[in-house]
Amino acid sequence: xxxxxxxxxxxxxxxxxxxxxxxxxxxxxxxxxxxxxxxxxxxxxxxxxxxxxxxxxxxxxxxxxxxxxxxxxxxxxxxxxxxxxxxxxxxxx
Length: 93
Description:
This protein is an all-alpha fold. The protein has 2 helices and no strands. The longest helix is centred in the C-terminal third of the chain and has 42 residues, at 48-89.
């Protein structure tokens, strides 16, 4: 591989790493919002149906958020690496 190709791949991998850090920050924010929502609207003294509804809602949001996070991370990582490989395989002009 040429020096430019290695640099291109390294930059793409660094971009994937930066994206992963932003995803983690978003994950922390989602956890914070869900925790606040759980304690604010969740369990009430003696109101079991309301508590179960809030718990179900939080679990559905959590599962959906984690599925979306995994899909977005895998898609972005794959696109960036494939783009870097494509750029690295093109002849220099």
